Amino acid sequence: MNVGRAHDPAAALVPQRTALVAGDRRCSYGDLDRWVRRVAAALTARGVGPGARVALVDTGSVLSVATILAAARIGAASAQMNVLLTPDELRDLAQAVDARVGVAGAPYRSNLAAALGDDAVLGEEDVAEHGEDEDGVDAADGDDALILFTSGTTGRPKPVPISHGVVAERLGFYGTPVDPDAPPVVDMMSAPIFHIGGTLGLLIGLHSGRTVVMLPRFSAGAWLEAVEQHHVSQTFVVPTMLQRILDHRDFARRDLSSLRQVSYGAAAAPVALVERALDALPDVRFVNTFGQTETLGAYAALGAEDHRARHKLGTAGRPFPGVELRIVDVAAGTDCPAGTVGQVWVRAAQNVTQDWLRTGDLAFLDADGYLHPVGRMSDTINRGGEKLGPIEVEEVLRRHPAVRDAGVCGVPDPELGERVAAVVVTVDGQEIDREDLRAFAAERLARYKLPERIVFAADLPYSNLGKLSRRALIDIVVAQEGIR
């Protein structure tokens, strides 16, 4: 299947149904199909064809969705870039994938034009001047359909080409046939469109004939208003979004009765936060998804039944059917026994590679087959030969009643190589004695895991994808503690 035709069944069966809601703008499936054809014609006129890459810088909009579909339709691939990047950063990513033509929303056009050249960038007004492409191309399963970039929390974002065949497999796994007689399910794209959670959810929704509400940029207030106004049924959020939604002053007075399922992932979710969400939204099915861009989203999940039973909260659940999972001792090259931490290796049809994918995640499988993430290999703290992941320490610190959030990292030390450090955000800014907090943690952690340096901050350095920057944590500790 050509991904550029993912919306074709709905365009044929329910052309008047609303496909997209972006702010005050509504777009039917018939209108979306016409926009896709216009963008395809505009790109073709700029010399874009099979094998080319199109830089895309925009939030969730009719233009961005049409560009993703149109590029795939003509055999090219959209390369979706973070709207917060500078022109120099956009230029680096464009060069990494050899994107010579771009599409940008109005607020981002000048930045992309500075990266590619003004004549190389199309806006909505340029697309509107074109007729409609009628043909498109046939795509082989192995041809690139789109390109996403890794989050870049441990270095420069890395391009991840994703083929038509891999996307088609995910649409078949998650999607449902278009039903012209049933009222449409309303999905909301809370994650940015350049994130796998945004793009994949969008394509699944369109392929299934759902109505997709797109938040141009997440805010808790806008999220609550959109759920109430558009009767949203299901959505995906990152844990920091969920925290802000529950904390928002309007949470209790908004009508969220339409909400049936909330999936969350992309970063570790504190157990206390999940329990709070279960209490606050008792009729909602919660699903914790675990995966990465290279696996085209989740390959394991903790399902709604486990959530309601408060069973194995904090785990990533169990692998999906058809997913092969190994926990590997990288140094020895052998599989780890149950309960022992190693690197997660995954092999599945959804992966961008057919061989074992070495994910870079550290985790262990328990005796029941549930996956327990403990952090990224790059986040591992080596304290004098004792190695640990930061997530376990963060989870313990967050259990303290005066702690709202905590981030843990290793800071340089001439004696041990690294020492464990924590940046702590307190509830309502109240003061905590460092030794009291350390004593609280000592009741729950081995001695070598205890934070030896604790500093306080008003907030933690999360990205707009909800990922915690360990490098920024180190900078905070170093600045406050005067470490050289």
Characterization of the model:
The structure is a single chain. 30% of the residues lie in helices and 27% in strands. It is α/β, with parallel strands linked by helices and 484 residues long. It has 2 domains: 3-320, ANL, N-terminal domain (Rossmann fold, 3-Layer(aba) Sandwich), CATH 3.40.50.12780; 380-481, ANL, C-terminal domain (GMP Synthetase, Chain A, domain 3, 2-Layer Sandwich), CATH 3.30.300.30. It has a 9-stranded mixed beta sheet, sandwiched between helices. A 6-stranded mixed beta sheet has the order 6-5-3-4-7-8. Helix 4 crosses helix 5 (109-116) and helix 7 crosses helix 8. The protein is globular and about 70 Å long. It starts with 7 loop residues before the first helix and ends with a helix.
Proportion of residues in β-strands: 25-35%
**Assembly state (oligomeric):** single chain
The CATH fourth-level homologous superfamily of the largest domain: ANL, N-terminal domain
Q: Give the second-level CATH assignment, the architecture of the largest domain.
A: 3-Layer(aba) Sandwich
Helix content: 25-40%
- The total tally of domains equals 2
Which CATH class of the largest domain applies here? Alpha Beta
How far do the termini sit from each other? Answer: 56 Å
Task: Tell me the number of strands.
Answer: 25
Low-confidence stretches: none
How confident is the prediction overall: mean pLDDT? Answer: 92
The major pleated sheet works out as:
9 strands, mixed
Coarse morphology = globular
> What's the total helix number?
15
- Under CATH, the topology of the largest domain can be stated as Rossmann fold
Radius of gyration: 23 Å
Structural class by helix and strand composition: alpha/beta
Order of strands across the biggest sheet?
Answer: 2-1-10-9-11-12-13-14-15
